[in-house]
């Protein structure tokens, strides 16, 4: 096993996923891996500066934690980055990868790949305001602009502006004609493109994202890159995280069992309910915990049918746990 020292936060991370990686999901994920870098959902600068919700709240247990920002106004991004640092975030990440129409209309996300000088200015303004790392998550191209030279022409000015870490979703984005969901599947993956970036810019920290489904695949990518980011696979099969600390970070501490993870969530759930929250706000993130185990379907069904009901409490979670024989964990 390769020795990993000192700790490299981008060596393994969970992708920012809209409507999925909220604070409850991140708390749950953190129970299974203390080293994985976690990301918020993308939060727009407008929501932070003008919205009335608590868009930046998190639990101290979630560290290391990065805030992903959506926006293209350098001053607004700098103000949001400063707020994030003041609250204790460990990193601020700029989204240059989301292809949705709503994002394009706001002039942020993947369409910013066509404006590298603007992205560079955004990074520079943010870094003037904070001491925490400012990173960029991008695609390998957009529409017909998908040559390696196009990617280099994006990375070089942004790196010169001070960005030392790029997370590359190894697909290009079609800004029209494909939905965001289709953009996660239809454009072909090109991992060697990310490998080439690392080879050409060895001073940069380069992580890859997109279509990665196992820790074996993670280990293969780490032969070429500094880090790997997983998204949907972790969300759908969260117990994958239980092996990350040992396999990816060479941390000898034994993993918790699935039942232990579920038990540790109970006090958190009780606190959420006491503050007026609903069980389903948390349980929806836990449906895949017992994937591959005898009783996994019964676990999912019980939570799906009962967690949304008014007054549902931890007894629903405990009853679901009883449907999975602890000695039969896969």
TrEMBL record:
Residues 14-321 form the DUS-like FMN-binding domain. It comes from Agarivorans albus MKT 106. Its EC number is 1.3.1.91. HAMAP family: DusA_subfam. One of its GO terms (molecular function) is flavin adenine dinucleotide binding. Catalyzes the synthesis of 5,6-dihydrouridine (D), a modified base found in the D-loop of most tRNAs, via the reduction of the C5-C6 double bond in target uridines. Specifically modifies U20 and U20a in tRNAs. The active site is at residue 98. FMN binds at residues 16-18, 68, 137, 169, 209-211, 231-232. Belongs to the dus family. Belongs to the Dus family. DusA subfamily. Keywords: Flavoprotein, FMN, NADP, Nucleotide-binding, Oxidoreductase, RNA-binding, tRNA processing, tRNA-binding. It is an enzyme of class 1 (oxidoreductase). NCBIfam families: PRK11815.1 (NF008774), yjbN (TIGR00742). Gene3D superfamilies: 1.20.120.1460, Aldolase class I. Its cofactor is FMN. It comes from the Bacteria. The record marks 95, 181, 184, 297, 300 as: Interacts with tRNA. InterPro entries: Aldolase_TIM (IPR013785), DUS-like_FMN-bd (IPR035587), DUS_fam (IPR001269), DusA (IPR004653), tRNA_hU_synthase_CS (IPR018517). It catalyses: 5,6-dihydrouridine(20) in tRNA + NADP(+) = uridine(20) in tRNA + NADPH + H(+); 5,6-dihydrouridine(20a) in tRNA + NAD(+) = uridine(20a) in tRNA + NADH + H(+); 5,6-dihydrouridine(20) in tRNA + NAD(+) = uridine(20) in tRNA + NADH + H(+); 5,6-dihydrouridine(20a) in tRNA + NADP(+) = uridine(20a) in tRNA + NADPH + H(+). This is tRNA-dihydrouridine(20/20a) synthase.
């Amino acid at each position: 096993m390769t020795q990993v020292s000192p700790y490299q936060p981008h060596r393994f991370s969970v992708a920012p996923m809209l409507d999925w990686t909220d604070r409850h999901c991140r708390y749950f994920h953190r129970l299974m891996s203390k080293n994985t870098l976690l990301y918020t959902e993308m939060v727009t600068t407008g929501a932070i500066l003008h919205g009335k919700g608590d868009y930046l709240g998190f639990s101290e247990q979630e560290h290391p934690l990065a805030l992903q920002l959506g926006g293209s106004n350098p001053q607004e991004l700098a103000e949001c980055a400063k707020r994030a640092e003041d609250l204790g975030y460990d990193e601020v990440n700029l989204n240059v990868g989301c292809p949705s129409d709503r994002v394009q209309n706001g002039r942020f996300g993947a369409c910013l790949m066509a404006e590298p000088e603007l992205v560079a200015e955004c990074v520079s303004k943010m870094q003037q305001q904070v001491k925490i790392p400012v990173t960029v998550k991008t695609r390998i191209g957009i529409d017909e602009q998908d040559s390696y030279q196009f990617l280099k022409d994006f990375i070089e000015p942004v790196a010169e502006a001070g960005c030392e870490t790029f997370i590359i979703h190894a697909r290009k984005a079609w800004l029209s004609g494909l939905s965001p969901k289709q953009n996660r599947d239809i454009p072909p993956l090109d991992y060697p493109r990310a490998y080439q970036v690392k080879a050409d810019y060895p001073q940069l920290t380069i992580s890859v994202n997109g279509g990665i489904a196992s820790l074996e695949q993670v280990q293969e990518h780490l032969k070429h890159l500094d880090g790997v980011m997983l998204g949907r696979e972790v969300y759908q099969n969260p117990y994958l995280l239980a092996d990350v600390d040992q396999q990816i970070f060479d941390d000898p501490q034994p993993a918790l069992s699935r039942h232990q993870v579920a038990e540790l969530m109970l006090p958190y759930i009780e606190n959420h309910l006491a503050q007026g929250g609903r069980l389903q706000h948390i349980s929806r993130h836990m449906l895949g915990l017992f994937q591959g185990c005898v009783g996994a379907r019964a676990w999912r069904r019980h939570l799906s049918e009962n967690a949304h009901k008014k007054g549902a409490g931890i007894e629903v979670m405990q009853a679901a746990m009883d449907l999975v024989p602890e000695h039969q964990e896969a």
